[in-house]
Amino acid sequence: MTNLVSKRVVITGLGAITPIGNTPTDYWDGLMRGQNGIAPITLFDASRHGCRIAGEVKGFDPHEYMERKEAKRMDRFAQLAVAASKQALADAQFVINDLNAEQVGVMIGTGIGGLKVLEDQQEINLIKGPDRCSPFMIPMMIANMAAGLTAIHTGAKGPNSCAVTACAAGSNAIGDAFRLVQRGYAQAMICGGTEAAVTSLSVAGFVACKAMSSRNDDPAHASRPFDKSRDGFVLGEGAGVLILEELEHALSRGAKIYAEIVGYGMTCDAYHITSPVPGGEGAARAIQLALKDGGLAPEQVSYINAHGTSTPMNDSTETAAMKKALGEHAYKIAVSSTKSMTGHLLGGSGGIEGVAAVMSIAHDKVPPTINLENPDPDCDLDYVPHHSREMPVEVALSNSFGFGGHNVTLAFRKYVK
């Protein structure tokens, strides 16, 4: 059997558009302050819905990143992805040109895709008739368009795909991009996750399956991962993008390096369409596989950006999984859920949480879990309550779990020559 190429892969650029900041710097500053991004929904009339709060992106102007005509032909989820990707390329000072375009790829995951366009066009179909539907409906709606349009807007002609694994999609996209660079199929990848599912139909569906918080009168405290009184997640929107680059290529152009990505674990519960397997066996294996892939021992892990959705089932199961995978060292690791501030971006979560994990390594600080006032007895780890923490961060993990039993863990490490 031929030995596979195994190149070192580093992160050289970041992009983030989130409910608490529309640049990576603003997002990180918001995390460090424990900023709340949850408020009453403004993107549609939610007065008849059981959940009327969300983590909306504020003040995003797509025309800062694309022409008005182009923006009009994109669903919001694709606009966010293109914008975050352009931020990340600018941050990396990475120029795509005729010489390198075929060696730069795109992997951007999403859980749902262009749901708002689908809702709007269905209303037109029913009220005005099928002949009035937009010819752009399909290319605006389909989930792969975030990746496709990012390539069109940046000129990246290398490998291009889209993970659609529910709330694990962004992390799957980063992990898959890591493999492509690691194995020599690309020199660099634009990768992450995006979602813009704060829509009437989306909220109605999640409320119907009893997944969402009903704390409509107290949005600032509605997302409360690991708290005994948590009652469901709060929907968020946004995009997070990382530039992954082969180490020698990054060094040859003098790029700044935030961190190194070293491990990718991916499993399936094969258990239930929405509930995690009791005891977290599938999630635990994903963590263990990421550590094995990165040649890491549990004792090397400093911080975990947890999936931490604020649902009764996830938080206790994820806690059990971390203890199963990491043993007694789990109690010595700083764990936090940034969803306490941003809400749950579904397929976009892995993108912005990957950015947070990388920033924690770069700055030797970890974000807090806000609203953790009365910890669940089954959730007994160090969740960094209320305030961010300065501490050495050598290795950070990012967990993402999705409906269908998808489990993903990414392992990042401080870069050392």
From TrEMBL:
PROSITE patterns: KS3_1, KS3_2
Tree of life domain: Bacteria
Gene3D superfamilies, sorted: 3.40.47.10
Keywords, sorted A to Z: Acyltransferase, Fatty acid biosynthesis, Fatty acid metabolism, Lipid biosynthesis, Lipid metabolism, Transferase
Keyword match Hydrolase: no
Active site positions: 167
Presence of the UniProt keyword Acyltransferase in the record: yes
Span of domain Ketosynthase family 3 (KS3): 6-414
Signal peptide residue numbers: none
Catalysis performed (reactions): (9Z)-hexadecenoyl-[ACP] + malonyl-[ACP] + H(+) = 3-oxo-(11Z)-octadecenoyl-[ACP] + holo-[ACP] + CO2; a fatty acyl-[ACP] + malonyl-[ACP] + H(+) = a 3-oxoacyl-[ACP] + holo-[ACP] + CO2
Pathway where it operates: Lipid metabolism; fatty acid biosynthesis
GO molecular function: 3-oxoacyl-[acyl-carrier-protein] synthase activity
Enzyme Commission number: 2.3.1.179
Function: Involved in the type II fatty acid elongation cycle. Catalyzes the elongation of a wide range of acyl-ACP by the addition of two carbons from malonyl-ACP to an acyl acceptor. Can efficiently catalyze the conversion of palmitoleoyl-ACP (cis-hexadec-9-enoyl-ACP) to cis-vaccenoyl-ACP (cis-octadec-11-enoyl-ACP), an essential step in the thermal regulation of fatty acid composition.
Protein name per UniProt: 3-oxoacyl-[acyl-carrier-protein] synthase 2
Organism: Phormidesmis priestleyi ULC007
Organism classification: Bacteria, Bacillati, Cyanobacteriota, Cyanophyceae, Leptolyngbyales
